[in-house]
Amino acid sequence: MAIFLNKESKVIVQGMTGSEGQKHTKRMLASGTNIVGGVNPRKAGTSVDFDGTDVPVFGGVKEAIEATGADATVIFVPPKFAKDAVIEAVDAEIGLAVVITEGIAVHDTAYFWDYACQKGNKTRIVGPNCPGLITPGQSNAGIIPGDITQAGRIGLVSKSGTLTYQMMYELRDIGFSSAVGIGGDPVIGTTHIDALKAFEADPDTDLVVMIGEIGGDAEERAADFIKENVTKPVVGYVAGFTAPEGKTMGHAGAIVSGSSGTAQAKKEALEAAGVKVGKTPSETARLARELLAG
């Protein structure tokens, strides 16, 4: 099994004909992703050749779904057009929308997230400003390198793209059932809690690694959820132990005010919920190994 994405997923790419879209579509195809189409209204009716794989381009998401049966979309659309791209995906009621785009205005993200909620949450939004998600050996929707790990029994949910890659590589000999990069913006779609709920229900996930960052209270809320609802072992890491208070670190989601949002406060909340928390990514990987070894 897998969460959110598997070998049966039929994926389209909004913005596939752009430079980033083409580069990462080629990488997703190399990972085994079943990409059935791209979307660009100006190039509808054409196709793009990816090393012998001819991928058709459609004028819109609804048209692509009708022609291919697509149930997932990966969005590589510039920030000022991203809101409309997500709304189009939501209107088409596609099951999964992975928003890779960085730099989307928080107001725009709040708008399309609220819009999806009003439409009944028929579309799961992952991101924005995220690396996407991968089920190794089955499908890869986003920019996660497909060759740094293998299929296994660890579930990974992470705010950070680069730390997602590092953890997958550190535990590559054990492997992952699914890895989900949720993004670190102040407003996101799928949360730590959503992924934890899915991993708890997945019979092929034995342990979950959860990576957080300073800023906000998402990790504290996840700790409360783990305490009440998660029976599987969870290992955590929180980036930003050395960050100074009151300073934006890296992006607007990582603002620390007093003790709120600090790495130490998040670590304490997670440990109070029974989560083993590493001080470094490598220590976190070691804790996961020890728990799996029994």
UniProtKB/TrEMBL annotation:
Transmembrane ranges, per UniProt, are: none
According to its UniProt record, in which pathway does this protein act? Answer: Carbohydrate metabolism; tricarboxylic acid cycle; succinate from succinyl-CoA (ligase route): step 1/1
* Superkingdom of source: Bacteria
Where is each CoA-binding domain found?
4-104
For this entry, the protein name equals Succinate--CoA ligase [ADP-forming] subunit alpha
Q: What does this protein do?
A: Succinyl-CoA synthetase functions in the citric acid cycle (TCA), coupling the hydrolysis of succinyl-CoA to the synthesis of either ATP or GTP and thus represents the only step of substrate-level phosphorylation in the TCA. The alpha subunit of the enzyme binds the substrates coenzyme A and phosphate, while succinate binding and nucleotide specificity is provided by the beta subunit.
Residues that bind substrate: 165
Membrane among the record's keywords?
no
Its keywords, alphabetically, are: Ligase, Nucleotide-binding, Tricarboxylic acid cycle
List the catalysed reactions. GTP + succinate + CoA = succinyl-CoA + GDP + phosphate; succinate + ATP + CoA = succinyl-CoA + ADP + phosphate
Query: Which terms does the record give in the GO molecular function aspect?
Result: ligase activity
The entry assigns this protein to a family as follows: Belongs to the succinate/malate CoA ligase alpha subunit family.
The family database entries (InterPro entries) matched by this protein are listed as: Cit_synth/succinyl-CoA_lig_AS, Citrt_syn/SCS-alpha_CS, CoA-bd, CoA_lig_alpha, NAD(P)-bd_dom_sf, SUCC_ACL_C, Succinyl-CoA_synth-like
PROSITE patterns registered for this protein in UniProt = SUCCINYL_COA_LIG_1, SUCCINYL_COA_LIG_2
Which residues hold CoA?
17-20, 43, 100-102
Catalytic residues as annotated in Swiss-Prot or TrEMBL: 251
Complexes and interactors: Heterotetramer of two alpha and two beta subunits.
- The EC number of this protein is 6.2.1.5
